[in-house]
UniProtKB/TrEMBL annotation:
Keyword set includes Membrane: yes
Residue stretches making up the Small G protein signalling modulator 1/2 Rab-binding domain: 18-146
Organism listed in the record: Vigna angularis var. angularis
Transmembrane helix listed as a keyword: yes
Stretches that traverse the bilayer: 96-116
Entry keyword set: GTPase activation, Membrane, Transmembrane, Transmembrane helix
InterPro entries from the UniProt entry: SGSM1/2_RBD
Pfam families for the chain: PH_RBD
Descriptive protein name: Small G protein signalling modulator 1/2 Rab-binding domain-containing protein
Molecular function GO labels: GTPase activator activity
Length: 158
C-alpha cells in the first residue's frame, strides 16, 4: 500500500471502495484567510458509480474549534455522485494555492476546495479512471463531467 494520503483501499461502509483520499483540503466560508475549515476529500466507488465526499475535521484550527456540530454538518458534503456533477474548474496559479470548484448539474457550486499540499493532478487522474472528463472548449481550466457517457461507453465496449 502507498504511504500517501491518496491510497486505494477497501471501505467497510456499504461496500464502497476508497479510490482517493486527500487530507488538509480546506474551504474558506468567508473572505478572511483565518476562517478556513480543513477536512478530508474522498472519492469512493460503489458498484459502477463514483462519489465525492468532504468532511471537515473537528477542532484542528481556531475556526474549526468554533464550529458547532450543526455548522459542521452544513459544510459536510456526503457522497455526491459524479452523475450529479456538471463540471470541475481547476485553478493552479503560479503563485498561490491550487484549488478546484465543483459545479453541480443544478448549477449550484460548492465552495472552492483548496489543496494546500498539492494533489490536484492526482485527483484528476483518479477521476479520469472512473468517469469521462472532457476539457471545455471555452475554458481550458474547466472539465466537463459526463458520467452517463462513460457508463454507455463501458456497456458498448463489452
Amino acid at each position: 500500500m502507498l504511504q500517501s494520503d491518496s491510497t486505494k483501499q477497501s471501505s467497510p461502509r456499504d461496500g464502497a471502495e476508497f479510490v482517493f483520499t486527500k487530507d488538509n483540503v480546506a474551504i474558506h466560508p468567508t473572505q478572511s484567510a483565518s476562517e478556513r475549515i480543513t477536512g478530508r476529500l474522498e472519492l469512493t466507488k460503489q458498484s459502477s458509480s463514483l462519489f465525492m465526499t468532504w468532511i471537515p475535521y473537528k477542532g484542528h484550527s481556531s475556526a474549526e474549534a468554533r464550529l458547532s456540530d450543526n455548522e459542521r454538518s452544513i459544510y459536510t458534503i456526503r457522497a455526491v455522485p459524479f452523475a450529479d456533477i456538471r463540471s470541475i474548474r481547476r485553478h493552479t496559479p503560479a503563485l498561490g494555492w491550487q484549488y478546484i470548484v465543483v459545479v453541480l448539474s443544478s448549477g449550484l457550486a460548492f465552495l472552492p476546495f483548496y489543496l494546500y499540499s498539492g494533489g490536484v493532478k492526482e485527483l484528476f487522474a483518479t477521476i479520469k479512471q472512473h468517469v469521462l472528463l472532457l476539457r471545455s472548449e471555452e475554458d481550458v481550466n474547466v472539465y466537463i463531467v459526463n458520467d452517463d457517457i462513460q457508463n454507455k461507453l463501458q456497456v458498448w465496449a463489452v
